[in-house]
Amino acid sequence: MTGLYLFAAAAGVPLVLWFVFSGNDEGGGADDGVAGVMFRLLPLSSIAFATATFGMCGLVLGLAGTSGVTTFVAAAVAGALAAVINSALYGYLRRSESTTEMGDEQLKGKIGRVVLPVTRDQRGRIALTVGGQQIHLSAQVLPEATGELAVGTSVVVVEMRNGIASVAGLDLELN
């Protein structure tokens, strides 16, 4: 039985590490047939956690001198419990996932301030408060604008293109 536990640990532990560090728990798609349905019900990460836990628990209990049947039952229960906990945690993370991504269109018209000077020859940085969070963007002055936008100057985002804000200085009474 030691060989079975060793194999399960050797196969499961690297997969568990991959799932933990990649953050990926993808199952099959809607058109993947029987395999897709199986992996939606029991994701591959849960299988990996069950296998790794079964193998590691079996090895540890075997080295501790526990009887064969007790070791197998305890390892199987621990593996099943690991799969259930993994599925519950990934399910919770999927349901509570949030994002702060904003499209370029949503940033147009936002008011911010210059944090690195913006000149006609060089891009700078601006800070905006969006959704209660401060974000920083690379910025350039509009082609028709004159002069430099110094640190602390209030600006309005006129256009976003490829993640770069085209900004114009803002009169103080508009703030």
Largest sheet, in brief, is: 5 strands, mixed, barrel
Total strands: the figure is 5
- How far apart lie the N and C ends? 73 Å
Give the low-confidence spans: 27-32, 34-38
Number of domains: 2
Rounded radius of gyration (Å): 27 Å
Order of helices and strands: HHHHHEEEEE
Name the shape in a single word: rod-shaped
> What is the SS-derived class?
alpha+beta
Strand order of the largest sheet: 1-2-3-5-4
Estimate what percentage of residues fall within beta strands.
15-25%
Q: What's the overall average pLDDT, rounded? A: 81
Number of helices: 5
**Helix content bin:** 40-55%
Description:
With 175 residues, the protein is α+β, with helices and mostly antiparallel strands. It has two domains: 2-95, no CATH class; 104-174, OB fold (Dihydrolipoamide Acetyltransferase, E2P), CATH 2.40.50.140. Helix content is 47%, strand content 21%. It contains five helices and five strands, in the order αααααβββββ. The chain has helices at residues 2-22, 33-41, 44-63, 68-95, 104-107, and strands at 111-116, 124-130, 133-141, 154-161, 164-169. It has a five-stranded mixed barrel. A hairpin with a 7-residue loop joins β1 and β2 (124-130). α1 (2-22) crosses α3 (44-63) and α3 (44-63) packs antiparallel against α4. The model is unreliable at 27-32 and 34-38 (pLDDT under 50).
What's the SSE blueprint?
Layout: H1 2-22, H2 33-41, H3 44-63, H4 68-95, H5 104-107, E1 111-116, E2 124-130, E3 133-141, E4 154-161, E5 164-169
Parallel strand pairs: 3-5
Antiparallel strand pairs: 1-2, 1-4, 2-3, 4-5
